[in-house]
């Protein structure tokens, strides 16, 4: 469950961020100050790889905390 939640949030964040970056570059394509700046697929792929790495590390840390938790502690108020 922890892995699914982390993966879902990572994919949503990556999609929204990449979409916003692409929209920004498309809107400012004709501006003189930003002419020539493009969103390369290598940047998108590297960003996706970094996000995947962060999601995996964060998930492993969360799973470790869940595994050491005593089952009865969940139901205590």
| Alpha plus pi helix count | 3
Task: State which percent range the strand residues make up.
Answer: under 5%
Question: What is the 3D shape?
Answer: elongated
Using only C-alpha atoms, the radius of gyration works out to 19 Å
Helix content: over 70%
Number of DSSP strands? 0
SS-based structural class? mainly alpha
Task: Please give the alpha-carbon distance between the first and last residues.
Answer: 22 Å
Low-pLDDT residue intervals, each spanning 5 or more residues: none
- Average pLDDT confidence is 88
Largest sheet: none
Oligomer: single chain
Q: What string gives the helices and strands in order?
A: HHH
Can you put this structure into words, describing what you see?
- Helix 1 (2-27) runs antiparallel to helix 2.
- It contains three helices and no strands.
- The protein is mainly α and 77 residues long.
Question: What labels would you give this structure?
Answer:
77 residues, single chain, 3 helices, elongated, mainly alpha
Q: What would a concise description of this structure say?
A:
By secondary structure, the protein is mostly helical. It has helices at residues 2-27, 41-68, 71-75.
């Amino acid at each position: 469950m922890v892995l699914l939640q982390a993966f879902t949030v990572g994919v949503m964040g990556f999609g929204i961020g990449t979409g916003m970056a692409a929209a920004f570059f498309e809107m400012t394509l004709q501006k003189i100050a930003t002419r020539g700046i493009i969103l390369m697929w290598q940047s998108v792929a590297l960003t996706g790889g970094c996000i995947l790495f962060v999601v995996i590390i964060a998930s492993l840390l969360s799973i470790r905390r869940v595994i050491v938790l005593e089952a009865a502690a969940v139901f205590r108020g």
